[in-house]
């Protein structure tokens, strides 16, 4: 038993080592990703549930590594956050999303707001406000064409800091949405304080609709709360017609998910804008 215990330990030690090595490798590659132009944004369409019109899109980061292929954001964003690399990467995302909006506009396409994900480390920086101002000004965009997506946990990490930063962001007309709503430590008092334009209902509450009665109760409560506070609700991860109908019956306003459209290249999103598609 003793020797098997030691073997188990060695096994875990080796596994740990592999994980550490993998992470270090990822980190060193990530440092070069920006310079080497390996980052790309894809855009997922957002639709109004009633009119079925395309009303916005979310910019989602992709890393195309020359040897390892496409590395999903869930694997590299945590590393970028831990190492602080997210600050430079996040600035690039903000600028690139605004540049892309300007490209669509300049080729005569209708303007819809683009939503950009913002990490806690970015929001906490003093120069974050200037970064946002710069990205808008450089591309001749009104603030209302930009939406920042901030998770509950980011807001709750340092609520005073977040409230200060977001108040300045709002003065520019930039929109705010609370991402992954319901998964973190949500406080209703803070919802009032941050006064987001939109609440994004997390996919985990949407995926088992309409059959799961608990999820149905939670989603219904979120929508009623948002309605009473004058905020819009967007349901994430909508994959089935039954989910869409159910969310419509609860008066959810906005939908995003594979049923309506996957994250797609800037070119494909441009085609979608040109077709002024309804779903
Ligand atoms: P998120 O902000 O909650 O983004 C939504 C994720 O759900 C995206 O995954 C999207 O592709 C996926 N999704 C959308 N519709 C559906 C659906 O109908 N079904 C299913 N199963 N999934 C759906 P993605 O692109 O892999 O991004 C994962 C996470 O990485 C994001 O979650 C966000 O937290 C983070 N992320 C992505 N881009 C950025 C970025 O530029 N900056 C920061 N800080 N985080 C980012
Ligand atoms: Ca998001
Ligand atoms: Ca989300
Ligand atoms: Ca998420």
UniProtKB/TrEMBL annotation:
Where in the cell is the protein located? Cell membrane
Name the domain of life: Bacteria
All copies of domain EAL, residue ranges: 23-277
Identification of the protein by name: PAS domain S-box-containing protein/diguanylate cyclase (GGDEF)-like protein
Q: Which organism is it from?
A: Paludibacterium paludis
- Upper taxonomic classification of the species? Bacteria, Pseudomonadati, Pseudomonadota, Betaproteobacteria, Neisseriales
């Amino acid at each position: 038993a003793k020797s098997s215990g030691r073997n188990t330990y060695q096994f875990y030690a080796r596994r740990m080592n592999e994980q550490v090595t993998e992470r270090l490798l990822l980190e060193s590659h990530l440092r070069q990703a920006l310079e080497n132009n390996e980052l790309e944004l894809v855009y997922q369409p957002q639709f109004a549930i009633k009119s079925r019109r395309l009303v916005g899109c979310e910019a989602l980061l992709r890393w195309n590594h020359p040897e390892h292929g496409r590395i999903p954001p869930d694997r590299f964003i945590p590393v970028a956050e831990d190492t602080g690399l997210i600050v430079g990467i996040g600035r690039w995302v903000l600028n690139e999303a605004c540049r892309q909006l300007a490209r669509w506009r300049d080729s005569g396409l209708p303007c819809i707001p683009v939503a950009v994900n913002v990490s806690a480390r970015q929001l906490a920086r003093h120069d974050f406000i200037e970064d946002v101002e710069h990205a808008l000004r450089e591309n001749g965009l009104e603030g209302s064409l930009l939406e920042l997506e901030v998770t509950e946990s980011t807001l709750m990490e340092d609520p005073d800091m977040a409230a200060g930063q977001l108040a300045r962001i709002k003065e520019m007309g930039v929109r705010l949405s609370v991402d992954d709503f319901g998964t973190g430590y949500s406080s209703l008092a803070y919802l009032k304080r941050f006064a987001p334009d939109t609440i994004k209902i997390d996919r985990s509450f949407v995926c088992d609709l309409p059959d799961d009665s608990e999820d149905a109760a939670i989603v219904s409560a979120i929508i009623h709360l948002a309605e009473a506070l004058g905020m819009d609700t967007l349901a994430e991860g909508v994959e089935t017609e039954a989910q869409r109908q159910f969310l419509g019956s609860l008066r959810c306003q906005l939908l995003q998910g594979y049923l309506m459209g996957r994250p797609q290249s800037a070119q494909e999103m441009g085609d979608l804008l040109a077709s002024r598609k309804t779903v």
